[in-house]
Amino acid sequence: MRNLLSMEYLTNEEVMEILLRAQEFEKGDDTLLTRSYNVSNLFFEPSTRTKTSFEMAERKIGCTVIPFDAGFSSALKGETMYDTVKTLEMIGMDAVVIRAKEDEYYNELLEGINVAVINAGDGAGQHPSQSLLDLYTIYKEFGYFEGLKVTIAGDISHSRVAKSNATALKRLGANVRFLCPPEWAGDFEAHHSWDELIEDSDVIMLLRIQHERHVVNKSFSKESYHEEYGLTFEREAKMKKGSIIMHPAPVNRDVEISSELVECERSRIFNQVRNGVFVRMAILETILKGR
């Protein structure tokens, strides 16, 4: 692994190596990299969890984090992504972590760029580090993927989390089902009712409604969405023993999920955030040591 761009480019063996390394970090392995690497986080879209998690992971494995403020960068003057990253390479960066609003922005960085590129989210495309921390959360819970029934519910067509997780989970042997309003299915075949899904799901993964990627819909109602597609108390009560609730966050409480369920016994939502640090430590170490 010289870069992390999409879950489509990772083999099952590479996925498991990252998950097992994350497990070692969580158990207390405090091994630092053999030298200090310079890393910068280029976030052109808002982020709380991913950006802060990467910064924490970078420091924990001994990287030097070089600040980058997208709101004051030359991108505002029209500089291309390639020129921005090439500039940082010439300054001495070893890796860049990038979130951008354009799908597959990284394609223009595949030739001529010699720093490691880690995709922290490209538009409605992929979010590989989120997928890996989701996989780690599931693996910690069950110890396997083969045959697990995973229901991903919400704004499927706009969700890079849904796309990344669908790719990885199916390849690892899980049975992935989708639930959403008909107009949000995109290229996926989706259910439009919980009836066939709620009682046998091992994992229910809820997704935020990404209003910023929608054409304005004045008829949208949070209340009606919650009633029809959200995880309510009544639906949670029907979930099988041992099943868990996940959400990449930020959570729209009482829309995708009843507020009181966010920290219920089944919920792993805040555990996912904690797991993200260990997984991103493993990602960074794997990529930087391999260059």
UniProtKB/TrEMBL annotation:
Presence of keyword Ubl conjugation:
no
As recorded in UniProt, its EC number(s) are 2.1.3.2
* Amino acids binding L-aspartate: 77, 160, 208
Q: Does the keyword Thylakoid apply?
A: no
The record lists the catalysed reaction(s) as: carbamoyl phosphate + L-aspartate = N-carbamoyl-L-aspartate + phosphate + H(+)
- Can you provide one Gene Ontology molecular function annotated for this UniProt record? amino acid binding
Q: What class of enzyme is it?
A: transferase
Could you list this entry's UniProt keywords, alphabetically sorted: Pyrimidine biosynthesis, Transferase
| Role description | Catalyzes the condensation of carbamoyl phosphate and aspartate to form carbamoyl aspartate and inorganic phosphate, the committed step in the de novo pyrimidine nucleotide biosynthesis pathway.
Provide the protein name: Aspartate carbamoyltransferase
